[in-house]
Amino acid sequence: MSAIKKLFLSEKYYFLVLPALSWQVLFFLIPLLFVGLMACFEHTSEQLFAYPTLENFRLVCTAPHFAIIFRSLWLAMSTALFALFAAYPIAYFLAFKVDRFRFFLLFLLAIPFLVNILVQVYAWFFVLDKQGMLSQAFMFIGLSKQPINFLDTLFGVRVVMLHIYLPFLVMPIFTALEKIDYRLVEASLDLGASFFATFTRVLMPLSMPGIKNGFFLVLVTSFGEYIIPILLGGNKVFFVGTIISEYFFIGKDWGKGTAFICISCLVLVIAVLIWNFIFNAVTMRSKRFVS
Prior knowledge:
This protein is an all-alpha fold. The chain has helices spanning 2-10, 12-16, 18-39, 55-60, 63-97, 102-110, 117-128, 133-140, 154-178, 182-190, 195-223, 227-232, 240-250, 254-290, and strands at 41-42, 51-52. The longest helix has 37 residues, at 254-290.
């Protein structure tokens, strides 16, 4: 008994991770393994796993399916990039330029998390409608003479996805910037470096963990987005989320659906590895400049 107690005390921090690890295994790893097994088996009305086969992968490895995957990947990457360019100035302002009202502004930024995503999407109908605020604004500044309907367009989908996923990037970047001693920025500027040089050689390398975490969080979650494209895209263009729902809920073809999920996940993992390599290369290049 004393040996068990000694083991627990010496490794208590690892034991504290067990609840979260168990949750991941039960509700992520095991379902993911189940999806992979379903893709590799033929299913009948009597048996869920009748016999092993790769026919499901052959049927989904077609040009239209890959076009849908890369369309979703492009939408996810563009959303993550636009959100990054918009989030960094906001996080910089909150971390270094605001003191008294910082937590209030962070609360305003976190308000969308308290509202159901369906409510947020339907609220955008009044903005993107033909008689909505955005169309009226375009007419007011002279960019259009006729009302523009932004509903059922990719532009509307991109705008709403940027709005939904922007806080997911602001928060990690703000957390990384808040840990930086601002005297490093002041020293760089006092020594004659421009703000751009200070950003690329001081701020960006030090805040890269927050940039990577937020970017990958937006990239991965927006890749399989279903609600926004289906409601605001008018079901005119198919994405990964809509195809998966078609296979599972309408076609009841779990074999093709799980095979399509596996292929999509493989493409997404490759994209994440490429972006991770790009971020690491940028960081190493910045560190070389500093040294």
